[in-house]
Amino acid sequence: MPTYLIFIPIVLITVGIIFSIIMNKKSKAHGAEVNMDEERRQYNHYKTELLDEKFSFLKKWMKGAPIDAFTSASIPTTTSQKAKEFLMDTTKNMALSAVGLKLNRVETECFLVLSGPELHFFTTDVDGDVDEYFVFDAFRLEKGFMEFKGAKTPDLLTKQTNSKEYLPNIYLLSFNLNNDVFSLEIHDRLKTNTSMQEMLTGKYFKEMVKHQVVGEVLVNELMKKYNNLKVN
Amino acid sequence: MGFFSKLLSAFKSIRLNEQAALHGTDLKHVLVSSMYAEQQGAFLNSYATGIANDERKKILEEYWNIFNKEDALSTLDYLLDKYHDNQIAVLLKALDNPNNYSDIIKSEVEEAELEEAIEKFRNLRTVINDLIASKFISNANEFNEIGESGWHAGRGAFIARLCLEMNYITELELKHYLQKFYTELKKKCKTWEDYTKSYVLGRALWGGSNNGGMIVIANDLLTNDKSPLKNNAL
User: Per residue in A143-192, pLDDT tens?
Assistant: First the structure.
């Protein structure tokens, strides 16, 4: 193997880190200019736009059911570990079976949709298609509990670039299932999957704000509907 | 039609006992067990089920925890008592109110029965669209009058027949229970079609799978020229 090939990944990683640092600085500068109150007044417009374009798949997945609010979600590491333990333990496996969740994929994107009194939870596979789907009905939500966990734990790259602005705040929604606690992380914004063109033209920041304005509504609506889920 | 429906359809048969066939009122009473009997490949028209002894033991012991006379009587009385359960009206009302179904069920079902009602409601929502799509029913309100009566009666009557064969109950006791299940069923179902619908509904509410297969059985019982249900009014 030619020696110069060794340098290719090093160069790519370095460029990536430098790019992230530049974007992070731009984000800070842009953040100072954004009037979030003004942006929040555009909620209905942004929600419609995102559902018609980037997140149109949610309408398909919901099969015509109303989408009152939607956001990104994730499965906490402890839950994914628990899921693995459950799968190995026949007795405990009953708990997850009871809600119909297998959670065999925890690293891919997840979404939550609030529709009437119900919370629809979707996990996706590596192709972005629905992997697991479960509806938390009113009875389950009435017995759930929620806590604010702060910014999502950054991964290695975001740690290096110190770009906490890119990380969503997390609300941990938990349920007791057969004497075990099962949890999901609700993000206070939609994950921004930005194209390179958006990155280069500066549209990225506008998109990021839009995703935050739309995503943050779900957890607020959930707390309005269910007193037991209110977080100070 | 799904794979299991096709499979069932391929093997479906109306099994009749030529040697000990019942007639008249006795036949009507025993036909209350027909959905369960047809599912198990048992005779429809006699007290004898024609089921192998090990299969009979398996049904009674593994599925119903019936090992003796006391267990048998207690189970049959429990199924008779289930007739007084009027949850279906509440569940259908909740189904019509997707934004406050929880409040409706919690306010109209007694605390002791709440968990059961919630599970039934979840099952109802899961199956109702399939039952309508398959044209088994035209809308959920068809269940309002008949409820789960066929499910309770059908299981009770068939279990009673098995219990007779295991000598857990006498023939007199069997006749007593069959008459009771029939009388209670008649209070809610006017036709055998009502009976089959309420049987499928009840089974679905209790989380039974493969409803498509049960619909095939129901249609066979109602339309097959050999079927006593087709040739005798409820």
Answer: 999 999 888 776 544 454 444 455 889 999 998 877 778 889 999 999 87
Contact B102 A139 (CB under 8 A): yes
d(CA B137, CA B41): 25
Which residues of B fall within a CB distance of 8 Å from A137? 102, 122
Considering only CA atoms, give the Rg of chain A: 19
Q: Are residues B177 and B47 in contact, defined by beta-carbon separation less than 8 angstroms?
A: no
* Encoded tokens for B109: 């079902």
**Nearest Cα to Cα of residue A122 among A193, A49, A50, A60:** A60
Give the pTM: 0.78
Spell out the alpha helix ranges (H) of B82-168: 87-95, 101-108, 114-133, 143-146, 149-165
Cα Rg of chain B, angstroms: 18
Contact assessment for residue A136 and residue A121, using Cβ atoms and an 8 Å cutoff: yes
**CB of A41 within 8 A of CB of A214?**
no
Please name the amino acid found at residue A176. N
The first and second tokens of residue A35, run together, are 């009037």
What is the C-alpha separation between B52 and B37, in angstroms, rounded? 13
B21 within 8 A of B46, measured Cβ to Cβ: yes
Distance, CA of A28 to chain centre: 22
ipTM, 2 decimals? Answer: 0.77
Residues of A in contact with B123 (CB under 8 A): none
Q: Which residues is A169 bridged to in the sheet?
A: A151
